[in-house]
Structures are given as C-alpha cells and as structure tokens.
Amino acid sequence: MTDLFTPLQLGQLTLQNRIFLAPLTRCRASEGHIPNKLMADYYAQRATGGLLIAEATMAMAGNSAFWREPGIYDAAQVEGWKLVTRAVHARGGRIFLQVWHGGRATHSLLNGDKQPVAPSAIAITDSETHTPKGKKPYEVPHALLDSEIPGIVQGFRAAFDNAKHAEFDGVEVHGANGYLLDQFLRDGSNQRTGPYGGSMENRARLLLEVTQAACDVFGKDRVGVRISPLNSFNSMKDSDPTALATYVAQRLDTMQIGYLHLMRADFFGAQKGDLLTPVRKAFRGVLVANMGYTPDEASAAVASGAVDAIAFGTSFLANPDLPRRIREKAPLQQADAKSFYTPGAKGYTDYPALG
C-alpha cells in the first residue's frame, strides 16, 4: 500500500518520501535580499523531507512585500542560495525554489517609492502591511499595460535561469495567495479587458506563460505550480473557483509539468468547496495538497490516491525531523507564531530534533 514513506517519482527525481516542506516566508534574508548561512542551516535541518519548497523569492528587484524576503535576481543572491542548495544536497535532500512576484501586495516604502503593479487598479483592503514606517494601508496599484506584461514574463525567465545557476533541483511557480499571478487568475482582482482579462482563458494566460518559461529553463518535469483558488487572503475572490481550478489543472496537465501544488482551503473559511476531486481528475501528474493536514489525514489521503504528497507548513517549521516523528508517531512540537518573521535563530533553527 502506498503511504507517506513510499518513494515518489517526480520526473527523473526519486523523492525519498511524500512529506514535503511547504514554502514558508520567514524573513531571515540579509540586506539586499541575500540568502545566508542561517537560512542554509534551516533548510538543511529539514532535508529528510521528500521535497523542500523554499520560500517565496523575488523574481525581480523592486517588488518586496516582506522587507527581508530573499531574491533571485542578482549574482550575490545566487551565491547566497548556493549555501542553501549545497547544504541540503549534502544531507541527501532535494529542494525547489518558489519564484514569486508580490504584485499589489508590495508597498512603495519597501521598494524605493516604486508603485505596486497588478492586473487592475484595485487595492488590498482587508489588512495592512508592515513597512519601515510601521503598518500602512496597501496602495492602489498601477494596472499593467499589455505592453508591460512581456517584461514580467522575461523577469521570471531570468529568475528561473538564476535558480538553475544556484543549483536548485527545480522551481515552483507561485500562482497562489493573492500575489501577482494569482491576481491575474481571479476575477475579483482582474477586471481588465484584452488578452489578459475577461475570460478564464485570458486570466490564466500570464500564469501559463510564466510556467512555460520555467519549463524552457528547467525542463517540464522540474517545474511545479502552486494555486489557491479558494483562499481569500489578500482580498482575493473568484466567482467560480472550482471551474478556475479545473481549467488551470487541465492546462497544466497538457504541459506535463512535474507537479501541481493545490491549497485546498481558505485561510479564513470565507470560501468553501471541494477542489481536490475535480483537480485530481483534470491533472494526471503528481498532485501535492496543502493546508491543515494532520499526519493521519495526510496518510489516508495518500493511501487513497486522492493526492500523491502532502506539503506541511507550521508542523515542519516546528519539527525539523517531521518525517521521523510521523514514522515513529512521536509528539509534534508547536510552532511559536511570534517568531515566524523575526530576525535571528530563535524560532527558526532552534527547534530540537528527537534524540
């Protein structure tokens, strides 16, 4: 019977188990958005996961949403990431980089007064963002012109090329959680006309173009895509999330990417629905699910064939040896939410392993 510890074939990669590290923003990068030794220690501690998906990483300069998140757009960042990839590989692990553009979730105070961009001039209204001058409302973004969108795709392509030079095993395209590619996908944030707005096919165009760029650089089996059609985080909503998820899954299936990473629920419970069933039917590749799985539920989901792997977030954050703890049915440590985004080792690399 297939379980969480059955090896998983991802293209030419054989993953040691089906327990993935979900991409988690931790804000530990050095000045200049440069990855560092502390980050290398963090990821290396978790190298027993089947696949580590490194945190949302800036594809291009001037799009910071978290102040100290890492980037992958210059040579110093590539060298910093090599500390991470080599540390993970030295422990027998596999690691993909989640490449990202914050879109309207960025702020000019974090980006040298550069105005955020988005598909439409609609601001995030359900929260405020942290800046060097304290919490501030999100700004109304600049609605990208059709003529500006090829530059976005090219920026992603350059980031994927840098990720390859940084020795990642592959990349995950971040099309979730209300950031730029997700903003184009959903009709609550994309109210433009033209080739990137209106129909579902047009709204998915940018995500698919960026995904194709990733396939061109890494090869299709080294590419994953993350989507969250139900998640209302960052003022997001779609009029038909099930149809959207199904359409995107069908198109990505045709592209034969390595995996599809589906966030199955809404952080806030505002939008509900079963996305896993239609997506499983539409996408024949490796399906990874995420959000709120216990080890027992994850085991049952994999055993039933509903999904192929589970990405764990806060439980892997607080338990660097999560696969061992699950196998031995050992207690799980609880994550300290107060240190999720604070600098330094506390709440980052100081969670003890068993024994």
- The tally of beta strands, per DSSP, is 14
General form: globular
Strand content: 15-25%
* Average pLDDT number: 97
The CATH class name reads: Alpha Beta
Structure in a nutshell:
This protein is an alpha/beta fold and 355 residues long.
What does this molecule look like?
The protein is of the alpha/beta class. It has one domain (8-339): Aldolase class I (TIM Barrel), CATH 3.20.20.70. The chain has 11 helices and 14 strands. It has helices at 37-45, 75-90, 149-165, 180-185, 200-203, 205-218, 241-255, 276-282, 295-304, 314-318, 322-328; strands at residues 8-10, 13-15, 19-21, 51-58, 95-100, 117-118, 128-131, 134-137, 142-143, 170-175, 223-227, 259-263, 286-290, 309-312. It has an 8-stranded parallel β-barrel with strand order 3-4-5-10-11-12-13-14, surrounded by 5 helices. Strands 1-2 form a two-stranded antiparallel ribbon. It has a two-stranded parallel ribbon with strand order 6-9. Helix 1 (37-45) runs parallel beside helix 2 (75-90), helix 3 (149-165) runs parallel beside helix 6 (205-218) and helix 7 (241-255) packs parallel to helix 8. The two termini are 29 Å apart. The model has no long low-confidence stretch (mean pLDDT 97).
Please supply descriptive tags for the structure shown above.
TIM Barrel, single chain, globular, alpha/beta, 8-stranded parallel beta barrel, 17% strand
